[in-house]
């Protein structure tokens, strides 16, 4: 089974946002939302030592995705090939996963009322095509493929040219979108747009921490009481019966 | 006591009076079936370890039955919508009958007698009171409490369900709807367990259960358990132009039959059941095959490696195929439930050990266990037991079935000679 990953070469990226446009067109992303976007870090440092980069942000298809467990209906899941997907037939639009994502890669589609995000263009992959952002990229800055294919370009870029992940000391969930750059742009991005701690909405917290144990105790206690009464009845037979 | 004539308890236990309208009986059983399906599918929908409360095998089994999780959710929503629609129709067209203020005051609201009843009932269960229970209306205080709880929870369950199904409101609204849906269902389930126990298992309330099938209760039951309602009925009857109360129906007579069924009738029933399983499932009845699967399942839990590679158990324990996913496994559960139901209907519901006069119950248990083990091993060697081989095989005219049946009877006659002292 393949293990898909993406590499973005930030030395080549010119910030033209063709990837965002291609993605929006491919997946009918509503206005104001995006599955992938290009965020300029702005210039940092003091002249003449200035640094700047374009952060090409999207779902990282993490090794340990924090968005899967909070999903109450099982709509968000990790496929065998590592791609984290949302099954729109199961999604009820509670937004628990949106709060959980450290990379803000998910959005609630206001038209379908379901959560949507990058799925590495799974529909195109099935047809043997590359993701829309990769084929569109005007600077040829994006690469996509199987990380386990040792002869493939992704393996070479990630392990040969040591592409970097956007991680922090607090949040390290194994993102599978890697970044190349001659001046350590990945570190700059992690500084300006650090991945945030996964958030649990109050409703999800309330449910898993309080309502679930309380409900199980209540139903369990009732069951226990009745089991005792039932056993007592079996022992005494039906002599209390009126008929 | 308002009547002057002495009460004839014998006649009162025979005479049936009407309690439930057929519309209520239908609604009750529709509701029961819907709850069973919605609880099963709803429990299987919750897969995340954060919220899941049923074991993984249960979730996988139910998902398997529906084919996919998408189908499971669609079924849950469709059944829920049907349920909401039926209740809405009852509520709109039966407003005066079911939800009018007077009806609610009479059938649901707790009066002073009810509060006393609850206090004494709880104390008497704890063995702390011998006071007589205050008279009760058409529903007793326990039933009223359950009704109150259900009346409060049902609208919440319906609204939160609709919010999730149609994505009404913002993400926060949907998120809270999930939690509230789960919590209110849990509250109803604890009440429901008491309701099912009192209605279906508790001996004193048995007539109440039958009244949900036939609509009638014996007058004596009304007199003892719902005295205030009995007085109302008597007052109604004493006014003229009342039609004569119907006597016990055939259905009710059959349900209350005390003796075992005649063997030939039971045989006919078993034959029809066998025909039905061939038609519906495509295979016959069986017993030992089901037990084998239970054993293989237990073995695969304790020693999965051993079970999977074993030449015999390996046939049952195959990767990607649940061991318990077999008709016979579910059939055996049905056999147990059926046994309980028939014993309960006939008032035979009690732990007891049948044994001959010369032996103790302990000997009987030891012999039964030994005999069971021998026939179990024999059944697997013969590749079937009296059910799977003789009954189902005989039904399709298999030669092996007849050879087996002759051998079983021959061995039975021979063995009975040596074991005759056990029973005589």
Please provide a written account of the structure.
The complex is a heterodimer of chains A (243) and B (424). Chain A is of the alpha+beta class. Chain A folds into two domains: 4-192, 2-Layer Sandwich (Alpha-Beta Plaits); 202-243. Helices cover 31% and strands 14% of the residues of chain A. Chain B is mainly α and 424 residues long. Chain B folds into three domains: 9-250, Fumarate Reductase Cytochrome B subunit; 257-350, no CATH class; 354-424, no CATH class. Helices cover 70% and strands 1% of the residues of chain B. Chain B contains 21 helices and two strands. Chain B has helices at 9-14, 22-45, 56-66, 69-93, 95-99, 101-107, 112-125, 141-166, 171-200, 206-214, 219-225, 227-238, 250-255, 263-280, 288-302, 304-309, 327-345, 361-381, 386-395, 399-418, 420-423, and strands at residues 16-18, 216-218. Chain B has a two-stranded antiparallel ribbon with strand order 1-2. The longest helix of chain B has 30 residues, at 171-200. The radius of gyration of chain B is 27 Å and the shape is globular. The interface between A and B is large, with 48 and 48 residues.
Using brief descriptors, characterize the structure shown.
heterodimer, A: 243 residues, alpha+beta, Alpha-Beta Plaits, 2 domains, three-stranded mixed beta sheet, two-stranded antiparallel ribbon, 9 strands, 31% helix, B: 424 residues, mainly alpha, Fumarate Reductase Cytochrome B subunit, 2 strands, 70% helix, 1% strand
Topology:
The complex is a heterodimer of chains A (243) and B (424).
Chain A: E1 4-9, H1 18-27, E2 37-40, E3 54-57, E4 76-78, E5 84-86, H2 96-100, E6 107-109, E7 114-116, H3 122-126, H4 132-136, E8 142-146, H5 153-160, E9 177-180, H6 185-192, H7 202-236
Parallel strand pairs in A: 1-9
Antiparallel strand pairs in A: 1-8, 2-3, 4-5, 6-7
Chain B: H1 9-14, E1 16-18, H2 22-45, H3 56-66, H4 69-93, H5 95-99, H6 101-107, H7 112-125, H8 141-166, H9 171-200, H10 206-214, E2 216-218, H11 219-225, H12 227-238, H13 250-255, H14 263-280, H15 288-302, H16 304-309, H17 327-345, H18 361-381, H19 386-395, H20 399-418, H21 420-423
């Amino acid at each position: 089974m393949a293990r898909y990953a993406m590499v973005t070469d930030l030395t080549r990226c010119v910030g033209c946002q063709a990837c965002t446009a291609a993605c929006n067109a491919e997946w009918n992303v509503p206005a104001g939302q995006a599955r992938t976007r290009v965020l300029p870090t702005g210039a940092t440092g003091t002249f003449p030592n200035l640094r700047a980069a374009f952060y090409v942000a999207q779902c990282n298809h993490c090794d340990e995705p924090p968005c899967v467990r909070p999903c109450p209906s099982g709509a968000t899941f990790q496929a065998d090939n590592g791609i984290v997907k949302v099954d729109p037939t199961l999604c009820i639009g509670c937004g628990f996963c949106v709060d959980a994502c450290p990379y803000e890669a998910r959005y609630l589609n206001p038209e379908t009322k379901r959560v949507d995000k990058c799925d590495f263009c799974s529909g195109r992959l099935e047809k043997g095509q590359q993701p829309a952002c990769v084929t569109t990229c005007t600077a040829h800055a994006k690469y996509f493929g199987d990380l386990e294919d040792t002869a493939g370009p992704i393996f070479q870029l990630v392990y040969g040219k040591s592409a970097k992940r956007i991680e922090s000391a607090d949040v390290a969930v194994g993102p599978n979108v890697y970044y190349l750059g001659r001046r350590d742009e990945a570190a700059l991005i992690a500084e300006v747009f650090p991945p945030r701690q996964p958030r649990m909405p109050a409703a999800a917290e309330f449910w898993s921490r309080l309502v679930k144990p309380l409900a199980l105790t209540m139903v369990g206690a009732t069951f226990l009481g009745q089991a005792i009464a039932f056993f007592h009845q079996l022992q005494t037979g039906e002599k209390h019966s009126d008929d | 006591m308002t009547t002057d004539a002495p009460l004839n308890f014998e006649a009162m236990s025979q005479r049936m009076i009407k309690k439930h309208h057929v519309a209520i009986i239908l609604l009750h059983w529709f509701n029961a079936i819907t709850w069973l399906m919605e609880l099963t599918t709803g429990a299987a929908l919750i897969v995340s370890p954060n919220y899941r409360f049923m074991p993984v095998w249960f979730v996988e089994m139910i998902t398997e039955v529906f084919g996919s999780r998408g189908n499971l959710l669609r079924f849950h929503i469709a059944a829920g919508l049907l349920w909401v629609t039926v209740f809405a129709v009852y509520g709109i067209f039966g407003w005066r009958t079911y939800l009018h203020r007077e009806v609610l005051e009479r059938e649901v609201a707790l009066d002073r007698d009810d509060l006393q009843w609850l206090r004494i009932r709880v104390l008497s269960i704890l063995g702390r009171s011998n006071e007589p229970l205050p008279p009760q209306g058409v529903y007793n205080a326990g039933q009223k409490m359950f009704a109150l709880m259900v009346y409060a929870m049902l609208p919440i369950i319906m609204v939160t369900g609709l919010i999730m199904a149609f994505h009404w409101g913002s993400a926060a609204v949907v998120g809270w709807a999930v939690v509230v849906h789960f919590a209110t269902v849990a509250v109803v389930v604890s009440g429901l367990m008491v309701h099912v126990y009192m209605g279906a298992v508790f001996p004193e309330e048995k007539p109440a259960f039958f009244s949900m099938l036939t609509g009638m209760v014996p007058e004596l039951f009304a007199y003892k358990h719902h005295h205030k309602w009995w007085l109302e009925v008597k007052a109604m009857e004493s006014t003229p132009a009342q039609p004569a109360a119907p006597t016990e129906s055939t259905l009710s007579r059959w349900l209350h039959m005390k003796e075992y069924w005649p063997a030939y009738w039971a045989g006919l029933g078993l034959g029809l059941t066998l025909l039905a399983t061939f038609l519906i499932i495509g295979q016959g009845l069986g017993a030992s095959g089901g037990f084998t699967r239970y054993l293989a399942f237990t073995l695969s839990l304790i020693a999965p490696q051993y079970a999977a590679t074993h030449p015999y158990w390996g046939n049952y324990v195959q990767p990607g195929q649940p061991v318990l996913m077999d008709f016979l496994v579910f059939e055996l559960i049905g056999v147990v439930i059926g046994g309980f139901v028939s014993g309960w209907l006939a008032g035979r519901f009690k732990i007891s050990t049948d044994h001959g006069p010369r032996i103790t119950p302990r000997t009987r248990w030891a012999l039964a266990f030994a005999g069971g083990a021998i026939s179990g091993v024999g059944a697997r060697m013969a590749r079937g037991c009296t059910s799977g081989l003789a009954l189902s095989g005989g039904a399709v005219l298999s030669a092996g079935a007849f050879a087996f049946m002759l051998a079983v009877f021959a061995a039975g006659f021979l063995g009975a000679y040596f074991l005759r002292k056990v029973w005589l």
